[in-house]
Write a structure and sequence with these properties.
- 29% of the residues lie in helices and 21% in strands.
- The protein has helices at 35-47, 90-100, 110-137, 168-175; strands at 2-11, 53-59, 61-62, 74-75, 84-86, 102-103, 152-161, 183-189.
- Strand 1, helix 1 (35-47) and strand 2 form a beta-alpha-beta unit.
- It is of the alpha/beta class.
- The chain starts with a strand and ends in a 17-residue tail after the last strand.
Length: 206
Amino acid sequence: MLELIPMVGIDYSMSNLTFDERKCIHSVNEDNPNEYRDLMSCISKAYKQMSPSTLFYGFGANSVPHLTEVSDLFSGTGDLLNPIVMTDHLQAAYYSCLKRVEINLPCCFSGVIAKAVEFAQQSQVYFLNAQDYVENAAGGVKSPSQECKSALSYFVLYVFCTGIIDDVPAAIQELTRVVSLPLSIYIVQLRNDNLRDGDVDVSILE
């Protein structure tokens, strides 16, 4: 059995500032154009029939304005111990987080990748241990009724960002750990015309 679990990491950093009439790619006004909201809607539509819940994280912001240092990883729900959001409520969770945090710098990717790797490693270990338990209990021979009932949780991480990465070496190091894990990572770059090509680092990770 395979269980797909979506994860979302959103760039809440100052790299989203546009310095034009729009001011920022993020917008708390739900009537304004907002690519982050649109992407969250896409994730919701794609996964709500497969996975009722999504893990939601942010980075590049003060998770508690005026009280904390900029965080390279924080729960998008505001609950440090519970980043779980109902998949069909992702847009609402995005807006709630946007109103709560304070955009800042630096913009570091490695934390959200490391968290996805951590979940995938735990899933793999749990699944393999369950398989070994069934085989040992059956003396090395499994009948259909003795097949392992544990599902392998496969994580799919989507990172939505403008493309600036302030910790490229650390991010690359974390990506090397993904090999052989039940984890896929997709980095989606949102266009910010204020950024020059030389400012964007995301292509280095391809």
